[in-house]
TrEMBL record, chain B:
Name under which the protein is recorded: ER lumen protein-retaining receptor
Similarity field: Belongs to the ERD2 family.
Xref: Pfam families: ER_lumen_recept
Chain ranges passing through the membrane: 65-82, 94-113, 119-138, 150-168, 174-199
An annotated GO BP: protein retention in ER lumen
An MF annotation (GO) of this entry: ER retention sequence binding
InterPro entries tied to this protein: ER_ret_rcpt
Underlying gene: LOC114666653
Location relative to the cell: Cytoplasmic vesicle, COPI-coated vesicle membrane; Endoplasmic reticulum membrane; Golgi apparatus membrane
Species: Erpetoichthys calabaricus (Rope fish)
Length: 10, 212
């Protein structure tokens, strides 16, 4: 699933 | 991390530092919306609650700490140390009109109905409109100091660069997040009018003043 949150971003 | 993401973070950092230095050097926060700065402090606090539970990288953790610390320092300078120079009369945008809809929307539209996820979503929605009190203040006084214009330009560019980063990630990794994407577009659109004035006036050495 590519609908992941960009939690590695700021 | 691609170049757009890195430049976006850098631009965000530059904006925050410009604002702190401007207030510190001039010993004044006139022309700065304390209300927008409170909203940014709320944005960082609610977004970075995963600071100690979810380690990504030293870079990620240090940037989060710097953003949070600087935003609280800015709020302290405006409402504490240099309170006498704060523009109470012009900084009158009702922030509950931004806080309440962002909170309601975060409860209704999110990826997962869990406390941390709802707070993260709330921070994304709130950030997209958090600059409105500042833009309202500029429109009310009809002008902005050049250094304030640089601050706004760097802050607006940051999300525009993130949009390019997301475009890049979509094509290279098939990665996308509609909540962040649509909020990012809204956030950038709110700066368009300002970008136009900045390029047509400030970059040509003139002070940013609005047509009467």
């Amino acid at each position: 699933d590519n609908l992941i949150n960009p939690k590695d971003e700021l | 991390m691609n170049v757009f993401r890195f430049l976006g973070d850098l631009s965000h950092l530059v904006a925050i530092v410009i604002l702190l230095l401007k207030i510190w050097k001039t010993r004044s926060c006139s022309g700065i919306s304390g209300r927008s700065q409170i909203l940014f402090a709320i944005v960082f606090t609610t977004r970075y609650l995963d600071l100690f539970s979810n380690f990504i990288s030293v870079y990620n953790t240090s940037m989060k700490i710097v953003y949070i610390t600087c935003s609280y320092a800015t709020v302290y300078l405006i409402y504490g140390k240099f309170k006498a120079t704060y523009d109470f009369n012009h900084d009158t945008f009702r922030i509950e009109f931004l806080l309440v809809p962002s909170a309601i929307l975060a409860f209704l539209v999110n990826h997962d109905f869990s406390p941390l996820e709802i707070l993260w979503t709330f921070s994304i929605y709130l950030e997209s409109v958090a600059i409105l009190p500042q833009l309202f203040l500029v429109s009310k006084t009809g002008e902005a100091e050049t250094i304030t214009s640089h601050y706004l330009f760097a802050l607006g560019s940051y999300r525009l660069l993130y949009l390019l980063n997301w475009l890049w990630r979509y094509f290279s990794q098939g990665f996308y997040d509609l909540i962040a994407l649509l909020s990012g577009i809204l956030q950038t659109v709110l700066y368009c009018d300002f970008f136009y004035l900045y390029i047509s006036k400030v970059l040509k050495g003139k002070k940013l003043s609005l047509p009467a």
